[in-house]
């Protein structure tokens, strides 16, 4: 791939990404979403997070490292979520727990 092709590809991907994101930001007034859809969208971050984390925990050999390290980090993250109910803190707590437990496993 030449430099020109790489630049054109990057510009095209950037344009598509900005355009798809901007479609929700360009209208002058807020969209009136149905109540059921608004309620369902509240669960989107948790669903996306569980879709990423569940295969790493449940599939054998999906991620490197000891099983107890992954399960311990998941338990720490779940405990934090039950305590504070914050997605970002859950991710940070799970990652810090994983790094700490992986360091202890060495």
UniProtKB/TrEMBL annotation:
UniProt-listed Pfam families: AzlD (PF05437)
TM region(s), chain numbering: 6-27, 39-59, 65-82, 87-105
InterPro entries: Brnchd-chn_aa_trnsp_AzlD (IPR008407)
Keyword annotations from UniProtKB, A to Z: Membrane, Transmembrane, Transmembrane helix
Keyword Membrane attributed: yes
Name of this protein: Branched-chain amino acid transport protein AzlD
């Amino acid at each position: 791939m030449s430099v020109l092709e790489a630049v054109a590809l990057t510009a095209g991907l950037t344009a598509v990404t900005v355009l798809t994101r901007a479609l929700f930001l360009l209208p002058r007034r807020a969209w009136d979403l149905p109540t059921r859809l608004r309620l369902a969208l509240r669960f989107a971050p948790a669903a996306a997070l569980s879709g990423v984390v569940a295969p790493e925990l449940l599939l054998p050999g999906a991620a490197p490292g000891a099983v107890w390290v992954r399960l311990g980090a998941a338990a720490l993250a779940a405990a934090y979520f039950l305590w504070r109910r914050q997605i970002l803190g859950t991710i940070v707590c799970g990652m810090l727990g994983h790094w700490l437990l992986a360091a202890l496993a060495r």
